[in-house]
Amino acid sequence: MARYIGPKSKIARKFGEPIFGPDKVLSRRNFPPGQHGNTRRRKTSEYGIQLKEKQKAKYTYGVLEKQFANVFDKANRTKGITGEILLQLLESRLDNVVYRLGLSPTRSGARQLVGHKHIVVNGKVVNIPSYQVKAGDVVGVREKSKSLEVISNALSGFNHGKYSWLEWEQSSMSGKFLHMPERVDIPENIKEQLIVELYSK
User: Per-domain residue ranges for the chain?
Assistant: First the structure.
């Protein structure tokens, strides 16, 4: 399973945002990495701005180039606003839903839970992080994994009311995917229209 395993703080500093979660390095050095990171840089071209936005989305959701291109192609073929559908498809990935349900503090941690068969969808174990969760699906913790300290620590104090498209049931340690989130409800700072423009060239 391919995924980005390089230095996360360097990527966060590149975009000036904690896209992998709270970052101590970024809070101390809020400028791009490298020898000239803290000096004034040349104006970025239109293409450069669009490319940077695509890279930000890729790193945020933990998707590599080919996967991202496939998701965009699917969004482009679906009726509606392409950019919004793109983000909805990324949000409905199983690893992202596990992250949104508070079962892990990071998406990479959520991906690991899925890969190690700790997560069930509608009662059946699913170990594919890119699995597309549909409206009505119930995503939960496998019975044998409910006592895992990493999961209980993540759930401790987590606010399950902040995502309107998910419904959490504490007794069963599972959440229902009610519907695709509206764009205004997706908290990620991504300008999806720039990504659409990039792929339209």
Answer: 93-179
8-to-19, 21, 23, 130 alpha-carbon distances in Å:
9, 10, 9, 21
Which positions ≥6 away from 38 have C-beta within 8 Å?
31
Number of separate helices (H) and strands (E) present in the chain: 9, 5
CATH number of 93-179: 3.10.290.10
Spatial CA neighbour of 94 closest among 69, 70, 124, 72: 124
What letter represents residue 29's amino acid? R
Exposure class string for 102-124: b at 16+ Cβ within 10 A, else e:
bbbeebbbbbbbbeeebbbbeee
Q: Angle at the Cα of 122 (from 116 to 123), degrees rounded to 5? A: 60
How far apart are alpha carbons 86 and 88 in whole angstroms? Answer: 5
Q: pTM surpassing 0.85?
A: no
What are the tens digits of pLDDT across the range 119-160? 999 999 999 999 999 999 999 999 999 999 999 999 998 999
Residue tagged 């983000």 (tokens): 87
Model pLDDT, residue 38:
57
